Amino acid sequence: MTAKVRYEDIRVGQALPDKEVAVDRLALLLFGGQTMRLDFAATHWSERISRSVGLPDVIMHGPFTLGKVLEIVNGWTGDPGALVEHRIRLARPVPVPDDGTGAVFLLSGTVEEKLSDHRVRIGVTAASPEGQVLATVQATVQLA
């Protein structure tokens, strides 16, 4: 695949389309079992244990949070293979309530810098509905 976004059409400060993401408890269990090589740490499925260590609820895995945040980048480029590198800063745990919806957060991104070789650096923020920053990602993508 090749990125559908052309380097020449991009400007610094350009916003990516926002995206709302929801993650429920079932998604946490599937992620822990399939992707994290059976990482069933209790803070990702047990309210009792999560609260006993000071967390507000069951929380998302850090790598799962990263994957969900990168959805906005992959959706914008049209090619998951366009991602060259990334850095994430997890600002706070992402609680996943057992309420039928789970964790809901908003992804927003901006083109921060045009680099050489048709590469672009993008900044992405994941925020709670109340506006709390949950994670920030800086991603570099290779454009057409």
Mean pLDDT: 91
Helix content: 10-25%
The total of helices stands at 3
Spans of 5+ residues with little confidence (pLDDT < 50)? none
Side by side, the strands of the main sheet go: 1-3-4-5-2
Structural class: alpha+beta
Terminal CA distance reads 10 Å
**Could you state the order of secondary-structure elements as H and E?**
EHHHEEEE
Work out the strand percent: 25-35%
The largest pleated sheet is described as: 5 strands, antiparallel
Shape: elongated
Total beta strand runs: 5
User: How much is the radius of gyration in Å?
Assistant: 16 Å
What do you see in this structure?
- The chain has a five-stranded antiparallel beta sheet.
- Helix content is 22%, strand content 31%.
- It starts with 18 loop residues before the first strand and ends with a strand.
- By secondary structure, the chain is an alpha+beta fold.
Write a concise keyword list for the protein shown above:
alpha+beta, five-stranded antiparallel sheet, 144 residues, elongated, 22% helix
Q: What is shown here, in short?
A:
The longest helix has 16 residues, at 62-77. This protein has 144 residues and is an alpha+beta fold.
